[in-house]
Amino acid sequence: MQGLMMDMPLLISGLIKYAADHHGEAEVAAREIEGDIHRYTYADAHPRMQRMALALKRLGMKQGDRVGTLAFNTHRHFEMFYAAPGMGYVLHTVNPRLFPDQLVYIINHAEDRLLFIDRATLPLVEAIAPRLETIEAFVFMSSRERMPEVNLPKPVHCYEELLAAEDATGFEWPLFDEKTASTICYTSGTTGNPKGVVYSHRAAILQTLVCSSFEFMPGHKEGVREVMFPMAPLFHGNGWNMPFTAPFTGSKLVLPGRNYEPDKLYELIEGEGVTLSAGVPSFWLILLDWLGRNGKKFSTLRATLSSGSAPPRAMVDKLKREYGVDYIQAWGMTEALGCTMPSMRPGSDALSDQEKLDRRMVSGRACFGTELRIVDDEGKALPHDGVAVGHLRARGPWVASGYMKLNEGVDADGWLITGDMALIDPLGHVSLTDRSKDVIKSGGEWISSIQLEDAALSHPDVLQAAVIAVTHEKWQERPLLLIVRRQGATVDGQTILDHMRPKVASWWMPDAVEFLDEFPMTGTGKVQKMALRSRFKDYRVDA
């Protein structure tokens, strides 16, 4: 016997239609590439998305065809998250921070037919365009008067002129199978070629429902309009789902364009009244340093969502103690967006401030819809006792079952191989201890680079810290500490080691410290340890 419920597909287009119909006055404020701020409402955005959907159809797109974007966080890029998937086309958000060869590879691999670009990415596109095998035309995301001279081998359309040529009167979004592909995001390719993660409409809607719950977004008050600010670029895992959760919840959406300088981020946070932001720890290390040097505070920001890499404890503590901002962590990755809840579990209100800080340092807790487990090197499940450390595995309705055109990604039991090392406590809290490829094995015992980095970052003169393994004659591997000092700081290596000593086991202590002017960063804002390991591959420490 089956239930007598209507069978309506869960489609992304329903989110923006709901937003336009029921809280159409909510605003989108987006910085243009040129620096000015564009403002409109969801009610304004919806018909523009419909007209762009019709324009894509006129350009020859068919269901399943890929539409690429090589662009930053602007209102036009936001519109593409509905215009393309809403028609059954697949939006492929390309990360412009990848190397040119990687960009060529993923655009060709995805078989994008159109590529939407902006002024910031134009030079990059002009350089790689002759190597793009499937691109039939480009769309420049601006008005005609702001279009520069372009040198591209295929036709170039103006975004606003495409819109102006369409009439969406009476337009209705089509219905199709909710398991249809909606967007594609490629990994950052730290261990080889980037891999394509293909999301579905159903997965996106389920993620949106979970991410919009009061359990996911702690501190929300009834009747208050949230102001969401994805500092995470829209080409990172669907902008951490904020292009979907903001319209669904009636929240104001703020987009930073291309400029991620701390003064420009602060200008938007304060000027637009941001209440909830999202971004990797590296954003906050730089922004907090700028805030301190300029004596600035926040007046509306109450929480920032983080994922991707472990934050320094000192940073999380400082944000709460000095700025009143809760740093809330969720575990997720391109292949598995939003698999843990960043909020503290019910019953945590009586905890002391230090106990709450302890809870903030974990990568969230298991949420409904996904399952997590840890396994040993042989794939045997390990206990969730808060002690055992193993390889983290995940499964669920919005967890990738593999990669585009590749037969890999899951283990023999069908669980996603995340590449993270973690422990899980009896209450479901996940604590990452390392990436599998970053863990240091010294004398047969594991040393967590994350915990060493956290200890180093607690020193006030340290801006960034990275720990990598270097060859050791006796112990096979030992930790090398790499440091980027704060602006104007002159701290030496011994002082940092002395500061760390009470915080970590003696045999974990790095054998040496080296200082760099800056770290190489991945396209997703993380320290590129592969490049650091290559740079220091011949480094030796005394036996």
Number of helices: 16
CATH class wording of the largest domain: Alpha Beta
Number of strands: 25
Low-pLDDT stretches are none
Globally, the shape reads globular
Structural class: alpha/beta
> Mean of the pLDDT scores?
91
- CATH H-level homologous superfamily name of the largest domain: ANL, N-terminal domain
**CATH level-3 fold name of the largest domain:** Rossmann fold
In which range does the helix fraction lie?
25-40%
Instruction: Describe the strand arrangement of the main beta sheet, using strand numbers.
Output: 2-1-11-10-12-13-14
CATH architecture of the largest domain: 3-Layer(aba) Sandwich
The largest sheet is: 7 strands, mixed
The share of residues in extended strands comes to 15-25%
Number of domains: 3
For the CA atoms, what is the radius of gyration?
23 Å
Separation of termini?
71 Å
Summed up, what is this model?
The protein has three domains: 17-278, 3-Layer(aba) Sandwich (Rossmann fold), CATH 3.40.50; 363-435, Luciferase, Domain 3 (Luciferase, domain 3); 440-535, ANL, C-terminal domain (GMP Synthetase, Chain A, domain 3). The protein has 543 residues and is α/β, with parallel strands linked by helices.
